[in-house]
């Protein structure tokens, strides 16, 4: 006699999910469902990586952005899995609807975030929080939809042929994880370098809706009512049409957004070694602007003053052998070559695009005085840290580190104690090191952390700053923005740290042929101004314990 209160055996189907009628054999049906899981998992991971990459590019500090995106998405996936329990009775229709919405939201996430950044004033003005709020909203929505996929797919695969829960979960997760592997590798090595961020997201959305639609309307069409089939087909075609139209207009959209960020004078925009290189102006009397990942790197009106402040103090001493870390734009090399007695200048920059522009772009080459074509200059495209590790002891009289801001996560290792220890080893006994350490007024803690880190590496320091008379008219991460009401401009100053191995402390006394923008008196005033911003008690930054932040 069967006990009516006994639990159902593990292979029994609940009363609301009878076996589905398939157009293929059950074994083939299971294989097709697992293929759908594979494709959907790949698309889901591409959405995650796309949000992390775009947020890091627009906001900087990739560790923070990755933590926000991934933590919000994982939380939302759990909520989505719980919410999907209500759709189990209509698993096929529910999964089709989830895929249509996920394709639309995920595919449009990158264009929407870029548009919010470009047309809401970046991180300044009354809409400063709009891009960040949008990032969290997309992470939450995409996470909810991805989380809803697995329970619905589990329900569908069990309707084809009932099996023990452990075996079904193992099959489903195996396909899911392998698909995630494919998506994780395809994004950095295929999609991003060849299609860019916007088109990659749109293409991923198209693949997502096609895969989900083919699975539901092809394999489980008999599990849907005629009205449900028509609605899902129409919705899928509309989403495909929207994504295709957006992909066709991606070039025009990117140009319009770029003009909104940099102004109407954008002349060159290229992808370099992991970042975007943009040149503005430089023709018809308009000043040249050089931007790396949206951040002002050089302004034709201020480049001379900035590079003199960087190079001249370090050249007050032996300077026959000079190493420029960064400096692929050729501007620091131009200043170095103005000093008599320079025999060799080694320029190490990881970005071949920037180096090529410095040689071939007429405006940039004119600004740097064609310095990279000088026979004394030897340019190497290589990782800066790795190149410094291979530098022989006491190989250089002067080392100039003109690198991206230390607050950027990708640059943190180039401002670590280990990095400065390698630089100290590469300096001659009377050699000097000078480091660009970011804006002093805007980020004093970052600046003085750089100074403390250099001292911890065994070097004697002389920190100073130089004011920027002009402001770059472009919005950029970290509080930079187009000059105008409610929008912040470029940093008001540049901070530098001069360091030396031997006693006494290095002196700031720039001497060179025809000094144009700097005088000892002006530098003395800038040293005093920087000293007033000192943040005491800061600890050095290391590779294991980076201490830079916004």
What gyration radius follows from the Cα positions, in whole Å? 29 Å
Strand arrangement across the biggest beta sheet: 7-6-5-8-9-11-10
**Domain module tally:** 2
SSE string, helices as H and strands as E: HHHHHHHEEEEHEHEHHEHEHEHEEH
Counting DSSP E segments of at least 2 residues, the number of strands comes to: 11
Describe what this molecule looks like in 3D:
The protein is α/β, with parallel strands linked by helices. The chain folds into two domains: 26-255, Growth Hormone, Chain: A; 301-510 and 519-531, Vaccinia Virus protein VP39 (Rossmann fold), CATH 3.40.50. It contains 15 helices and eleven strands. It has a seven-stranded mixed beta sheet. A hairpin with a 2-residue loop joins strand 3 and strand 4 (295-299). The longest helix is centred in the middle third of the chain and has 55 residues, at 165-219. The protein is elongated. Mean pLDDT is 84; it is low at 1-13, 123-127 and 472-489. It is a multi-pass membrane protein. Keywords: Cell membrane, Membrane, Polyamine biosynthesis, Spermidine biosynthesis, Transferase, Transmembrane, Transmembrane helix. It is an enzyme of class 2 (transferase). The active site is at 402 (proton acceptor). It catalyses: S-adenosyl 3-(methylsulfanyl)propylamine + putrescine = S-methyl-5'-thioadenosine + spermidine + H(+).
């Amino acid at each position: 006699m069967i006990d009516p209160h006994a639990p159902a055996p593990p292979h029994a189907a609940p009363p609301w999910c009878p076996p589905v009628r398939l157009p293929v054999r059950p074994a083939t049906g299971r294989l097709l469902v697992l293929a759908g899981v594979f494709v959907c998992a790949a698309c889901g991971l591409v959405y995650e990586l796309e949000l992390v990459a775009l947020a890091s590019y627009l906001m900087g500090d990739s560790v923070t952005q990755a933590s926000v995106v991934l933590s919000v998405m994982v939380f939302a996936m759990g909520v989505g899995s719980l919410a999907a329990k209500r759709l189990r009775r209509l698993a096929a229709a529910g999964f089709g609807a989830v895929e249509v919405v996920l394709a639309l939201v995920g595919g449009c996430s990158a264009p929407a975030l870029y548009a919010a950044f470009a047309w809401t004033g970046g991180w300044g003005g009354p809409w400063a929080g709009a891009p960040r709020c949008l990032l969290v909203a997309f992470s939450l929505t995409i996470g909810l939809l991805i989380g809803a996929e697995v329970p619905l797919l589990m329900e569908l695969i069990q309707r084809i042929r009932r099996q023990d829960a452990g075996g079904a979960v193992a099959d489903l997760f195996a396909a899911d994880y392998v698909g995630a592997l494919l998506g994780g590798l395809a994004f950095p090595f295929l999609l991003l370098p060849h299609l860019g961020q916007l088109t990659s997201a749109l293409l991923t959305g198209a693949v997502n809706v096609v895969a989900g639609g083919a699975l539901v309307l092809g394999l489980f069409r008999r599990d849907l009512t005629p009205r449900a089939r028509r609605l899902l087909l129409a919705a899928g075609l509309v989403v495909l049409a929207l994504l295709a139209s957006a992909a066709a207009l991606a070039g025009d959209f990117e140009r319009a957004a770029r003009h909104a960020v940099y102004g109407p004078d954008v002349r060159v925009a290229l992808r370099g070694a992991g970042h975007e290189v943009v040149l503005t102006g430089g023709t018809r009397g308009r000043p040249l602007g050089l931007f790396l990942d949206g951040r002002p790197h050089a302004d034709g009106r201020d480049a001379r003053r900035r590079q003199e402040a960087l190079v001249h103090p370090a050249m007050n001493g032996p300077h026959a052998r000079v190493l420029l870390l960064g400096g692929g734009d050729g501007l620091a090399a131009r200043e170095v070559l103005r000093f008599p007695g320079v025999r060799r200048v080694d320029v190490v920059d990881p970005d071949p695009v920037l180096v090529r522009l410095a040689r071939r772009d007429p405006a940039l080459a004119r600004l740097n005085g064609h310095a990279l074509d000088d026979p004394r200059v030897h340019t190497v495209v290589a990782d800066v840290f790795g190149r410094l590790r291979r530098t022989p002891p006491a190989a250089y009289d002067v080392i100039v580190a003109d690198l991206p801001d230390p607050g950027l996560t990708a640059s943190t290792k180039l401002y670590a104690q280990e990095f400065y220890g390698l630089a100290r080893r590469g300096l001659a006994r009377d050699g000097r090191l000078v480091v660009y350490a970011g804006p002093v007024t805007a980020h004093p803690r970052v600046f003085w952390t750089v100074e403390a880190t250099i001292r911890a590496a065994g070097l004697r320091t002389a920190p100073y700053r130089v004011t920027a008379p002009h402001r770059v008219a472009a919005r950029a991460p970290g509080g930079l923005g187009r000059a105008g009401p409610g929008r912040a401009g470029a940093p008001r100053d540049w901070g530098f740290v001069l360091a030396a191995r031997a006693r006494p402390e290095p002196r700031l006394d720039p001497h060179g042929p025809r000094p144009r923008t700097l005088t000892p008196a002006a530098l003395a005033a800038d040293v005093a101004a920087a000293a007033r911003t000192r943040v005491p008690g800061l600890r050095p930054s290391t590779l294991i314990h980076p201490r830079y932040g916004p």
